[in-house]
Amino acid sequence: MRILPRRRLIPKWRPVTSTLGTVEATSTARKKNSDSAENADELNLAISQWRETKNVGLLGEVLSFSVDKDLQEKVIAVGYEALNGGAAVTPIQSLLIHDLGKNNGKEEHYTAVPLGPMEACHPFQEPIQRLRSLLRFSPDNALALLDFAQLQTALGKSRSAERALRTALSLAPNNRTVLRTLARFYVHTERPDVAHQLIKNHARTLQDPWLMASEIALADAAGTDSFFLGKAKRFLVDYSKFPESHLTELLGNIALEELHSGNMKKARESQRRALLAPNDNVVAQAIDFQHHFGVELLTPSIAQAIKSSAEALLLQAWDAVDPDAIEKHAIDWHSQEPFSSRPIQLLSSLYAYRGAHSTALRWIQAGLRTDQLDKGLLINLAFVHANMGSHELANATLKRLRHIHGKEIESFANATEGLLAYQLGDFADGDALYDRAVAEFDRKGNLQLGAFCRLNQAFLAVERSHPTGMAIAQKAIDLVKSNPSKDSQLLLKLRFPDYATEVPKESPELRKLSQWVFDAKENKLIETVGVTSKTSKRLIILGHDN
Fold it and tell me: How many helices (H) and strands (E) does the chain have?
C-alpha cells in the first residue's frame, strides 16, 4: 500500500521548459490575461515590435506568450524565424524555442525505466548529453544547469547536482526559479532547514509572493515557525489587486496554516482564493487535501489547472480506481519530476497489485537510486521480493527497514513475513504474523491499512490453498466493506473483480466555492462569491412565480 509522507506546498522542480511556460516564471508586474483573444492581440503587437527591431528583449516578450497553449504554435513559428534568420537569440531562448518546437510544444518523456525497446539505454542518457553539449558552449546558462541537476539527482548523484545548482545560483542570485529549485533540492536531500534559511534570508522574499509562499511551506518542512506568515497576510491586504495567478501558492500555504490551526472558516476562504487561478502545484494540493477542506473542485480555472498537472490527474485516477489512467499519469509525473519517489511509489504499487512484480521491482530500484532510505519504496521492495520468491532479498530488505525506521514499520514487516510463511506452507505462523500486523494497524487507528492487509492475506491464502482460505477471503471482504480505501478497491478490481462492486464508494457532501443567483424579474444572473454551506444549491432562482 502506498505510504506517502504528508504533502506540502513546497516548490515544484519541473524541467525548465515547463516552468518557463507557467505564470511562476513571469514578472509579478504583468497580469496573466485569461482572455485568449486579448492575449492574441498583445502577442501580435509584440511580434510586430520584435520584427521592427530584432531586439532580444522583445523576443523574450514574444516567447513569454507560450504560457497560453492556444498561442504556442504562433510563438514557435516566430522563434524559428529568429533562429533561422540570424537574429539575436540568447542561449536560454534558443533552448526554449527548440524544446517548444518538439512535437509542437509537447514535452518529451524521459524515464528512469525505459518504456520502449531500448532496454540497455542508460537512464536519461539523451537529455544529459544534450545538456552537456549546451553547457559546453554556454557554461553560464543557469537554467540549463537546473535541468542538469534534476537528472543528476534522479540518478542519485547529489553532489554533482548540488555543484550545478550552486553554480546556477552564483550566475543568477536573484532568479526566483533558481532559488526555489535549490530550496527544493535541499528538501529532497533531507535538509529542509537549509532550504528554509536560503529563502528566509533572501532580500527578494519580502516583495515576492512566490518566495514568501516557499518560506511558509519550508518552515513547516523544517519544523519551525514561519518568519513571513504574518507579513504574507499583510501583503495580501496591501496588494489586494495583485494578479491572482501570482498569489495562488501564497494563499494555498496560508490556507494550510489556517487549517492546521483549526481556523476552518479562514482556511476555506484562503483556499477559495488560491483556487481562483491555481497552478499545477496548488491544484494537486487541493485534490490531496479535499477531504480536509470539503470543497468542490469544479470551476473552469481548476479544471484547466488539473489538465496541466500530471500529479493532479494521477490523484484523480487513483480516486477513480482507474488502473490504466494511474499508469499513464504516474509515468507522466515521473518524467516531469524524475527525482521524486512519489510517482514511483504509486506506480510500483499498481504493478505489485497487478502481479507484475518484475516491472514493479525495476521501478522501485530506479526510485531507490535517488533516495536509498525511502520508507515506502523499501516496504514495496520487501513485498515484491517476497512475492517473487526471493526470500533472502526480502529478509535483507526487512532487516534494513527495521534498522532505518525501527518499530514504525513493524506492522508492514510482520505482514511481509506472513506472506513468506504462507509461501513455505507454514500457515499457522503466517496467520499469527498477519494477525499481529493487523492488530498493530488497528491499535494505531489505521483501520483501512488493516483491512488492506487482510485483503492481501486473503489473496495469498486462496492462491496457496490455505485450509481456511475461503473463510479468510470472506472475512477480508467484510472488513474492507466497513473500512474501504482506494488501495483496497484497486486491489479488488485487479484481483477479485467479482467483489469489487460490493465495496461502498464515498460520496461526501462538498461545499461550493461560489453560488449563482438568478433574478427572474430582472432577468439577471449574478455570481455570489464565497464558500457555501454543504447543503447549498448551485443555483438559486429569485422572484419566480410557481
Answer: 29, 3
510 and 294 Cβ atoms separated by less than 8 Å: yes
- CA separation for the pair 309, 311 (Å, rounded): 5
Which alpha helices (DSSP H) does 320-446 contain, by range?
323-336, 341-354, 357-370, 375-387, 391-405, 410-423, 427-443
Hey, what amino acid is at 319? D
Q: CB under 8 Å to 238, separation ≥6 — which residues?
A: none
Alpha-carbon dihedral of residues 159, 163, 165, 167, nearest 10 degrees?
180
Of the candidates 226, 233, 174, 171, the one whose C-alpha atom is nearest the C-alpha of residue 10 is: 226
* Cell output for 330: 504516474
**In the chain, where the domains are located:** 373-500, 511-546
Phi, psi dihedrals of residue 127, rounded to the nearest 5°? -65, -35
What's the rounded Cα separation, in Å, for the pair 214 and 210? 6
Burial class (CB in 10 A: 0-12, 13-18, 19+), 91: middle
Can you give the pTM of this predicted structure? Answer: 0.84
Is 28's pLDDT higher than 80?
A: no
CB atoms within 10 A of CB 174: 11
pLDDT tens track for 247-302: 999 999 999 999 999 999 999 999 999 999 999 999 999 999 999 999 989 888 99
Say if CB 27 and CB 176 are below 8 A apart: no
For 201-239, where are the alpha helices, taking DSSP H only? Answer: 209-222, 229-238
Whose cell is 532568479? That residue is: 175
